[in-house]
Amino acid sequence: MKYHLWVGYIFLSFFLFINPYAYSSTNSQPITKAINGTDATLYAPLLLPWQAAIKQNSYDSISCGAVVISEFWLLTAAHCNPIDIDEIAIAGTSLIKDGDFSDLDQKYQFKIKQIIPHPDYNEDYFLNDITLLRVERSLYEVAQPIKIATIEEQYLADIEFESSWITYGNSPATVIASGWGDTLEFNSPTTLQVITLAGVPDNQCNGLILNDDQMVCADSNINGLIKDVCRGDSGGPLIWQNESNIMDSDKGIRLIGLTSNGQRCSIRINESENQYNQLTGQYTQVSTHREWIEQQIRLHGKKPSFSLDDNSLRPTLDTDPFSVAKDIPDNNEEIIKNTYRSGGNISLNWLFSGLIIMIWRRNLTKRYKYNS
């Protein structure tokens, strides 16, 4: 009798653990999509040619995002340190298979030869959360740079955010974030994810501390729908479109932010009803650091005349990301509401499993009690 009981326990445990959908509600399905982003390759093979990433030291995994800004230089977040010399930056591709880079062509991999974190980076408040990276060979072999917004353009973006952001309502998508960061807890995508968001006015940005000119804020533009970057996206780009330059070769796309700080993904996912009480996504305002960037590249890149105003520091785009990126995944089943993998939500899988463990512990206690 006991033998058959234990066989039943084992069978039920095996069934529950191999089948993540068994007895689960529609609110707890572990869909492997971004937090309501979409695959960049749906729109173009290389939709964001400035997108880059930093490989984890000794592991085939992404530690942070990065952005190509010139032939040999990338930007990332200062909090992504420590990054070591000869670590690998990846650029020029939308496809990076987490856990196995064996099929990643060497032409997309660039050794990092110099690391320049901002000297005034403050890890408590994420102030000056920006780092320059120099690679050993030309990024232009496979990638293109993005133009960094000027202070005047950032002012225009701020005005747009002020006039278009609607709390407790739908707002137009005014910015796009991107990266290979977790789509669910410990679940990284192979395909670069793009997420349309709304810029949030500084005075409505939850958790913004000190120096409004240090951060750009952004959140889901669809009321009640979770959209956000996640672990592994830090240092990646937040882009905005200057509509006055939409006819230019770069469609007026500007880098305005680097992913920096915000609400933990598990809280964002599992407590979505508290969206407006959570930390708003915060991004290092890159325009504030234009002068520092130019100074460092002139000094360390041995280019005394380097200027971010150089027209060669802009991409030629066939596809406008803002005209094609979708606000909501086409397939309703792909929309992430919440997930038991990110904590805070107990599925029936775990309830049944917990019951099995309780019964097992009870029988184990009886066994040792009566044999002692």
Keywords:
six-stranded antiparallel β-barrel, 6 helices, disordered N terminus, hydrolase, serine protease
Indicate the topology.
Blueprint: H1 2-18, E1 38-39, E2 51-55, E3 62-68, E4 73-76, E5 88-91, E6 109-117, E7 131-135, H2 151-164, E8 175-179, E9 193-200, E10 215-219, E11 237-241, E12 253-261, H3 265-270, E13 281-285, H4 290-300, H5 321-324, H6 348-371
Helix pairs in contact: 1-6
Protein architecture, described:
- It is built from six helices and 13 strands.
- By secondary structure, it is α+β, with helices and mostly antiparallel strands.
- It has two domains: 2-24 and 347-371, no CATH class; 38-334, Beta Barrel (Thrombin, subunit H), CATH 2.40.10.
- The strands form two sheets. A six-stranded antiparallel barrel has the order 8-9-10-13-12-11. Strands 2-3-4-7-6-5 form a six-stranded antiparallel barrel.
- Helix 1 (2-18) runs antiparallel to helix 6 (348-371).
- The relative contact order is 0.18.
- Residues 34-298 form the Peptidase S1 domain.
- It comes from Photobacterium leiognathi lrivu.4.1.
- GO terms for molecular function: serine-type endopeptidase activity.
- One of its GO terms (biological process) is proteolysis.
- Keywords: Disulfide bond, Hydrolase, Protease, Serine protease.
Cα gyration radius (Å): 23 Å
Instruction: Tell me the number of strands.
Output: 13
Q: How would the global form be characterised?
A: globular
The CATH first-level class of the largest domain comes to: Mainly Beta
Q: Find the structural class using helix and strand composition.
A: alpha+beta
Distinct helical segment count: 6
Helix and strand element order: HEEEEEEEHEEEEEHEHHH
Beta content:
15-25%
Task: Give me the CATH superfamily of the largest domain.
Answer: Trypsin-like serine proteases
> How many domain units?
2
Quaternary structure of the protein: single chain
Query: Poorly predicted ranges (pLDDT <50, ≥5 residues)?
Result: 1-34, 338-372
Which strands sit side by side, in order, in the main sheet? 8-9-10-13-12-11
Largest sheet: 6 strands, antiparallel, barrel
CATH topology of the largest domain: Thrombin, subunit H
Distance between the termini: 22 Å
